[in-house]
Amino acid sequence: PGTVFCDNISYIFMFLTIATSNLVATSLAQQDKDKVQHQISILLFIGLVCGVVMFIFTRLFGIKAITSFTGENNVDIINSANTYVQIRGLAWPALLVGWVAQSASLGMKDSWGPLKALAIATVINGTGDIVLCRFFSYGIAGAAWATTVSQVVAAYMMIQALNDKGYKGCAISIPSPDELLQIFMIAGPVFLTMMSKVAFYSLLVYFATSMGTQTIAAHQVMVQLFMICAVWGEPLSQTAQSFMPELLYGVNRNLSKARMLLKSLVVVGTSFGLILASVAASVPWLFPKIFSPDPEVIREMHKIVLPYFLALCVTPSILSLEGTLLAGRDLKFISLSMSSIFVLASLLLMLLSSKGLGLSGCWFALVVFQWSRFFIALRRLTLSDGILYSEESTQYELQKLKAV
């Protein structure tokens, strides 16, 4: 419960990463290094403030939040989870500052710095778990300390990576009301989009839970595999967010090259998605006993392999399309379309569940959710007056960016 609590709450602040990479990439496209430094400084300040707020929240309300999550009767679990959460809470400021610094590097088209930080943090976390838990018997506290130290080290390395590029990674600035509004205009729709996805996945769990122990066990296995595989498409989204602003709003903008880049991303996403989904679907189909020896659980897993494949294969392409929309700051459309898809897919989910279609109905609702995202984003980007085709639309957006 402690791990789920920390990780789920941290997901709320993912808007900081997207806002950072978007603002940095756009300013670099305009060849304004001073503006890049200023934006990094104010985003570092926001990340630090959010981290301190979360640290205080964890101290004051951590145990109450865990109790509401696990139930009052699980005293041993609550105490252990609270120990974990309180230790992890020490790293909140470093975690969010590190995310901002990492996203700034990605916005500068530098993936090597974040990769090194991630690799070293992973080694520290894994080694710390083994040493503290196995040799020193610190238990859950040892696991928490290992994660906390790894996050602090990763944040330091991310800040150092900015320093190496000639920026001041430790400089912070208090944003003005106008700057806060600009960040909110990016972060707000992104937050709404992310929450729509989280809410729909939560609804899937809710409906699956009412179908029995074996069914929820099968769903849990498949949805965890889906989440693990889905993030493999994130580099396509980050590539779009890092390279598209230069082609859309840069000094030497080129919409033709932007369209070619999107085409390449979609082709790569489609190919990679088919390969990824094929491999990911074959594991529970051919080797289900890796996850559970229960014949009923295996039967339920086999029932949803097809919708699992259909939902996963399109995910990398979705991320490349939505990354392009984010790069083009078509934020109002992203938030409205995702909210609409969420509502319609939720209604479909309730309808299929009421018809007694079981877990298969839930997963086919996910298929509709995913493919709706794909087709709507694709349609938006191929409109003749869209950000990739209309010089007037791009010029208008460019003037708005310069006015900020």
From TrEMBL:
Membrane topology summary: Multi-pass membrane protein
Keyword Transport among record annotations: no
Record Pfam families: MatE
Keywords: Membrane, Transmembrane, Transmembrane helix
Keyword Transcription regulation: no
GO cellular component: membrane
GO molecular function: antiporter activity; xenobiotic transmembrane transporter activity
TM ranges: 12-30, 42-63, 138-159, 180-204, 265-287, 307-326, 333-352, 358-378
Compartments where located: Membrane
Family: Belongs to the multi antimicrobial extrusion (MATE) (TC 2.A.66.1) family.
Protein name, as recorded: MATE efflux family protein 4, chloroplastic-like
Organism: Nicotiana sylvestris
Species classification: Eukaryota, Viridiplantae, Streptophyta, Embryophyta, Tracheophyta
Protein encoded by which gene: LOC104232590
